[in-house]
Design a protein that fits this description.
It catalyses: ATP + protein L-histidine = ADP + protein N-phospho-L-histidine. This is histidine kinase. A 5-stranded antiparallel sheet has the order 2-1-5-4-3. A 5-stranded mixed sheet has the order 7-9-10-12-11. Strands 6-8 form a two-stranded antiparallel ribbon. It is α+β, with helices and mostly antiparallel strands. Helices cover 37% and strands 26% of the residues. The radius of gyration is 21 Å and the shape is globular. It has 9 helices and 12 strands.
Length: 345
């Protein structure tokens, strides 16, 4: 991502990225303004040197990030440029380029109040609010049409499809309400991840028909865990729909249990590894370093919001979302804790 990347400068979320040497290779205008200096004063400075309390913490986090490639969250980091005042932020660190790091800074007050992790990132919320207003009326029309259609059909298959439409309209309406009036996520409840995946597959069958082969590779021994079934459905449907739109001929949903897995800075005794594998044309090389940023899309008609939402849902579940891709083989991996993390030694 070049230092003058227009997609980055259009965002209100402070973003910076480093090279393999740990020095800041570029940042958007929001990051520089938030620190209180110009962009040129930021570029070239070691990222760890901005930590006014524990520079070693950032160095260790970067080393750990390179070791397992899962995004890391550092809470309430006190950052200070030598020429400006100090600021507090939660930092999200993700792999970037060849051994570089992408940094999202979510500013917090000096004295903690509400956890910003419970709110949508500022850039995503701002992008979606206008869209949410525009979608409410069409969704109400679709719901009304589905209800009228439901009174006219008589066979079970048609009634099932009408029920699917009605259920999805309800879920999307609830999502729009959440975007228009942000609130902490709903309390999690016990869920079966395979029931969520079957719902996603039903949506995919309705969307792609016989054009795409949908394959299941489930671990039937997986137990239930605490989560939000609707939010996970939204995230996984976004991943599957992206695969369909990437020209996939087959899509595989795979579940496995992982033991002693580290996600971020926490070690989890048991975690779910959920993979969406497709044989489409892959992630465009030009977007490889910024696909999780809001408003970034490889399609002219794309909103660029699906992957940003999927990553947000992963974080709501204390998990992570990563990917690897080459033409003919793309894998998005969702890691979700199934058991509370172990206490650090």
């Amino acid at each position: 991502m070049p230092a003058d990347a227009p997609d980055a400068n259009a965002l209100t979320t402070p973003l910076a990225w480093t090279g393999a040497n740990g020095a800041i290779a570029g940042c958007n205008q929001a990051f520089a303004r938030w620190l209180g200096v110009g962009v040129r004063r930021v570029v070239g400075r070691p990222l760890a040197s901005l930590d006014a309390e524990q520079p070693e913490r950032l160095r260790e986090a970067i080393a750990r990030l390179h070791a397992d490639s899962a995004p890391l969250r550092l809470r309430r980091v006190r950052l200070r440029h030598p020429e400006a005042d100090e600021h507090f932020a939660d930092l999200w660190l993700s792999p970037h380029g060849d051994d570089g790091v992408l940094v999202e800074a979510h500013p917090v007050d000096e004295f903690p109040g509400d956890d910003p992790a419970l709110l949508l990132p500022a850039a995503l919320a701002a992008s979606l609010k206008g869209l949410a207003h525009e979608l409410r009326n069409p969704l109400a029309g679709v719901k009304g049409a589905a209800q009228l259609l439901g009174r006219r059909v008589g066979d079970d298959a048609s009634r099932e499809l009408v029920g699917l439409i009605d259920g999805e309209v309800g879920r999307l309406t609830a999502l729009l309400d959440q975007l228009l009036s942000p609130a902490p996520p709903r309390a999690h409840s016990a869920l079966n991840i395979h029931a969520v995946l079957e719902r996603v597959l039903r949506l995919a069958e309705s969307d792609a028909g016989w054009a795409v082969k949908l394959l299941r590779d489930y671990d039937p021994s997986l137990p239930e865990f605490e989560g939000d079934a609707d939010r996970l459905t939204q995230a996984l449907w976004n991943l599957v729909r992206n695969a369909i739109e990437a020209g996939a001929g087959s899509i595989t949903l795979r579940t496995r249990a992982e033991h002693g897995l580290r996600i971020g800075d926490a070690l989890h005794p048991v975690a779910l590894r959920l993979e969406v594998v497709d044989d489409g044309h892959g992630v465009p090389e030009a977007l490889a370093e910024q696909i999780f940023l809001p408003l970034v899309s490889g399609r002219a008609e794309g909103s660029g919001l699906g992957l940003a939402l999927a990553q947000q849902v992963a974080r709501e579940h204390r998990g992570s979302l990563a990917w690897r891709s080459r033409p003919g083989h793309t894998v998005f991996t969702l890691l979700l804790p199934m058991v509370e993390p172990e206490d650090p030694e």
